[in-house]
Amino acid sequence: MTQGAEWWRSAVIYQIYPRSFADGDGDGMGDLQGIRERLPELAKLGIDAVWCSPFFRSPQKDAGYDVSDYRDIDPRFGTLKDFDDLVAEGKKLGIRVIVDLVPNHSSDQHPWFQEALKSPKGSPARERYMFRDGKGRNGELPPNNWPSVFGGAAWTRITEPDGTPGQWYLHIFDSSQPDFNWDNEEVREEFKDILRFWLDRGAGGFRIDVAHGLVKEKGLPDVEEASTTMSGEEETNKPKDRTKPHPFWGQEGVHEIIREWRKVVDEYDDRIMAAEAWVLPLSRMAKWVRQDEYHQSFNFGYLEAQWKADQLKEVVSESLVEFGNVGAPSTWVLSNHDVIRHATRFAYDQVPKQGDGIGPDYPQPDVAKGLRRARAATSFMLGLPGGAYIYQGEELGLPEHTTLEGKYRQDPTYFRTKGERVGRDGCRVPIPWEAAAPAFGFSKTGESWLPQPEQYGEYARDKQDGVAGSTLELYKSLLKLRKDHNLGLGSFDWVAEYCSEQSLGYQNNDILVIANFAGKPIELPAGEVLVTSQVGLDGVLEHDQVVWIKL
Ligand code: NOJ
To answer: CA 265, CA 499: separation in Å to the nearest integer?
Structure first.
């Protein structure tokens, strides 16, 4: 565990997707007991904290991002005691436990929403959510044109308690996820109390879901371009005008809420808040991490960059300038539970837009190319100063499950688009621990809530642990060197000699990192080679390869 009050400035945080990390009770669904039992493996990896995706009580319509009780653990994942035990085990191992707070919306099964459905129009219970009358002669049309991120309209009409067709409620995501009304004082007070509940229990902090949502533009005007990504854009990988105001993403009013939360979090010693804010350009994202707001924000600009020298050069420079301008560390991230795993993504020139996923009908990836580039990309990322995020399984080089059949799919995106967008299940498949064990060691019984592809056995942790040249050992070396050379708090300079259309070089403290993206091999300079993304460096750096040299 990195010590000190500002530990997060250089921390490496490992994302656990509880359903798919480790199943302690054998029902095929990962749980808190499983996480606790496997935590020593993460200590060996060399991370500072884990962020667990939601494990709160929930009908699981969106894998737990639909919370019905913010102060309890869903029985599928365990009990509050299991949470306390996990925090205690983390303390012993030097790993903080960060929880995932979902404040934009609750589950439709949350007692507040149920109360709202039973209460009359205009009642205080309805005021906690976003109820509106419909348009059209009989209110039969939705109040505006907002789309749901998961497909279809962002509005659903209710039946009033007297049986007549009634008002509509807003849900930027699934219809089972009604949006809260953040102008409502009760909602604001409730969430401050929820923060305290988990901070008192020893949570290391919060990853805040949809941190750029929450506040909606007054009058709820139509959106100009009705797109369904978390950034409000139709496609990634394309330069766009990203500065246009959007009626539900990135409203100014959200900052006042963040400041209130920051005061609560600052009542405790060294806890943090990290924003899931899909707002670009980074100059806008940086507003989320001003001194009295979030500690960190996920760098989605970095995540969206392709494995290309020009794109990475631009986004790294921009990140360090923009976050630096507000005194915040930059973060770096390549994968999470919403995007195609980078070991698969980098095998393509064009990938489906964020959240759409890859199914059996999509051209299948060149797995070896993807893995080679993923190892290079991680080696490039972990030398950068700031904080970094790792998504479970990437330390094994795990690819996306790209042939998952429709009958297994669970992402609401798949259902709301009638299979047109297959969604995010492919990056959420339970991870392999032991090649020869049932469900590759994920669960003792062999049960697994999503089927694991057979090839996952090749990536199992026990096949890589202690094996020179494995992806797992590469991650361990990178993380150890990162710490030993204090790179998280280090300095940064591009090294012009290595910066071209096909290569990049930068220096952080006493380490020179060189990346070869394509083309001809690069002669290595003098210095000690500390680590390389591919074994077998014969004095030259090949394509899709990264090296760390001690100067
Ligand atoms: C972002 C989360 O990362 C995603 O998994 C979830 O579906 C949406 N927010 C809605 O909560």
So the answer is: 42
Which amino acid residue places its CA nearest to atom 10 of ligand 1? 65
Q: Would you tell me how many other CB atoms lie within 10 Å of the CB of residue 138?
A: 9
Residue type, 307: W
Give residue 536's pLDDT band: very low, low, confident or very high (50, 70, 90): confident
Q: Ligand 1 centroid to 9 CA: how many Å?
A: 25
Q: Is the CB of 338 under 6 A from ligand 1?
A: yes
pLDDT digits (tens, 9 = 90+) for 369-417: 999 999 999 999 999 999 999 999 999 999 999 999 999 999 999 999 9
Can you tell me whether residue 169 is helix, strand or coil? strand
Q: What pLDDT score was predicted for residue 234?
A: 58
CA nearest 506: which of 374, 371, 382, 388? 382
CB pairs under 8 A, 24+ apart, for 317-323? 317/494, 318/281, 318/282, 318/283, 319/282, 319/386, 320/385, 320/386, 320/492, 322/281, 322/282, 322/283, 322/285, 322/286, 323/282, 323/286, 323/289, 323/386
pLDDT the model gives residue 238: 44
Query: Is the distance from CB of 490 to CB of 382 less than 8 angstroms?
Result: no
Cα–Cα nearest to 474, from 380, 403, 345: 380
> What pLDDT does 241 receive?
58
pLDDT at 5 over 80: no
Sign of torsion over alpha carbons 230, 233, 235, 240: negative
Q: Is the CB of 173 under 6 A from ligand 1?
A: yes
Tell how far the Cα of 550 is from the centroid of ligand 1, in angstroms.
40
Å from CA of 56 to ligand 1 middle = 14
How far apart (Å, rounded) are the C-alpha atoms in residues 156 and 169? 6
Ligand 1 binding pocket mutation candidate from 208, 209, 276 (most atoms within 8 A of CB): 209
> Nearest Cα to 529, choosing from 511, 542, 515, 516?
511
Does residue 240 surpass a pLDDT of 70?
no
**What amino acid is encoded at 14 in this protein?**
Y
For residue 266, which of 191, 208, 202, 199 has the smallest C-alpha distance? 199
**Catalytic (active site) residue 209:** yes
Rounded to an integer, the average pLDDT of 47-57 is 98
- The residue whose CA is least distant from atom 4 of ligand 1 is 338
Helices (H) and strands (E) in the chain, counts: 15, 20
Going by CA atoms, what residue is nearest to atom 11 of ligand 1?
Answer: 65
Backbone angles phi, psi at 343, to 5 degrees: -65, -20
Interstrand relation of 387-391 and 12-16 (parallel, antiparallel or unpaired): parallel
Closest CA to 516 of 542, 490, 480: 542
- Token readout for 272 is 């943090």
Say how far residue 18 (Cα) sits from the centre of its chain.
Answer: 13
Annotated catalytic residue, options 48, 62, 209, 400: 209
Please tell me if the CB atom of residue 155 comes closer than 6 angstroms to any atom of ligand 1.
no
Q: Which atom of ligand 1 is nearest to the CA of 105?
A: 11
Pocket test for ligand 1, best of 66, 104, 338, 428 (most atoms within 8 A of CB): 338
User: Residue 368 Cα, ligand 1 centroid: separation in angstroms?
Assistant: 30
